[in-house]
Amino acid sequence: MSAIEKLPAVDNGLLRFLTCGSVDDGKSTLIGRLLFDSKTILADTLCAIERTSKKRGMDAIDLSLLTDGLQAEREQGITIDVAYRYFTTGTRKYIIADAPGHEQYTRNMVTAASTADLAIILIDARKGVLTQTRRHSYLTHLVNIPHLVVAINKMDLVDYAQDVFNTIMADYLEFAAKLGIEDVRFIPLSALNGDMVVDRGERLDWYQGPTLIEVLEAADTDHTAHAEPLRFPVQYVCRPQDSANPELHDYRGFMGRVESGVIAVGDAVSVLPAGRESRVKAVQINGQSLERAFAEQSITVLLDDEIDISRGDMIVRTGELPNVTKQIDAMLCWLAESPLDARRTYLIRHTTRETKAKLAAIEFRMDINAIEHQGAERLAMNDIAKVSFKLAQPIFADRYSDNRATGAFIVIDETTNNTVGAGMIV
Questions:
Q1: At the fourth CATH level, which superfamily is domain 323-425?
Q2: Quick one: fold of 3-218?
Q3: 232-317: same fold as 3-218?
Q4: Where are the beta strands (DSSP E) in 125-226?
Q5: What separation in angstroms does the CA of 260 have from each of 38, 113, 209, 300?
Q6: What is the pLDDT of residues 309-333, one digit of tens each?
Q7: CA dihedral 336, 338, 342, 345 (to 10 degrees)
Q8: Which of 268, 335, 394, 376 is nearest to 106 (CA)?
Q9: How many Å apart are CA 200 and CA 204, to the nearest integer?
Q10: Strands 353-367 and 314-317
Q11: pLDDT tens-digit series, residues 7-57
């Protein structure tokens, strides 16, 4: 009986997690091992990767092909774009994001990290902590991923030596202390052979901690560790036009997703930016009435009073207001090949609200290698910096450390409509 089959028959909910690290640390192989050992690979998919493995002259199945889905990735043997995969153990559902290891694809990794509950940083046991290991660790900390697992992979290539594991763990902890990373745990493993991934194996008996799957099964996936205030950005105002149904004549529903907190019938709420107050008359999903709705649910809200509300406005609980501001300070990840231009006007999209913005200042650029601040007059692709923006219209923001939904925004090039930056309000 496998370790998966031994797990108790309970529902631990959905876990979104990210794998990242330097090039060739074995991220794709690790995910392939999880999919293979959890028996979630379809027969036709298994046959396809067997054929591809033989073409590449391999005797065994190359499990990394399960996530390296692009033709260019398979030809080069690297991960280029973020690959998302789904699997289940029967006790928990998982969405996995496999982030590229190359530095030029750091921007892809930021996208994957933005919704993750847990991150797995892979380290090649032969190479130890590398520059990209530091970069990805910094990014996972920056985007406030609550749980971090450092998986020291390819232990089979260092004879499963405990002293190698201990040395790498000490090096990483020294680096993590400079960033303030606290919730981190270490697992030695071999993704190729499966040691400490799902089954413990027999070659790491000196390690007494949990396997990777046991850590994933037990990880806390609450929306937040503390109670968050209600944040309900309005996406659409529903006004049905049905002359045959007079009951819908006065229907005015405000549709959107609860980004944080709870909204219930009878709650006293305020509508931003006007600040008008009302009470929740009804909460609906697909026409069905609910007493309350929670974070990440898409709902329709009806209010007692006639208030002029449009897309981009926000409904919050009275007395729990966010910061209504036309200037923001943020940590910015620049994603575009063209540098950030202080002379240009950009668009900032924050929740469902969009406004024109201009760069006010670059306070510093982060040197990931030295973990120190540097002066900068421009930002190039993959740069991370603390900046200030002046906005044409106010947004309703919280600090990213308090609320990942209302503390995040993207920067858009208004001429190309491309996303060129991702920011976290400080």
A1: Translation factors (2.40.30.10)
A2: Rossmann fold (3.40.50)
A3: no
A4: 147-153, 184-188
A5: 33, 18, 34, 15
A6: 999 999 999 999 999 999 999 999 9
A7: -70
A8: 335
A9: 8
A10: unpaired
A11: 445 667 889 999 888 877 888 788 888 888 777 665 556 676 667 666 776
Under a CB-based contact definition with an 8 Å cutoff, are residues 378 and 351 in contact? no
Type and span of the H or E element at 95: strand 93-98
Residues 67, 70, 74, CA angle at the centre, nearest 5°? 75
Q: What is the CATH number of domain 232-317?
A: 2.40.30.10
Domain-wise residue ranges, the chain: 3-218, 232-317, 323-425
Neighbours of 108 (CB within 10 A): 19
The amino acid at residue 182 is E
- Cβ atoms of 112 and 144 within 8 Å: the answer is no
A 10 A CB-CB count for 24 gives: 17
On the question of a cis peptide bond just before residue 229, with omega within 30 degrees of 0, the verdict is: no
The separation between CA 59 and the C-alpha centre of its own chain, rounded to angstroms, equals 36
- Burial pattern 36-69, b for ≥16 Cβ within 10 A else e, equals bbbebbeeeeeeebeebbeeeeeeebbbbbbbbb
**Sign of the torsion formed by the C-alpha atoms of 226, 227, 233 and 239:** positive
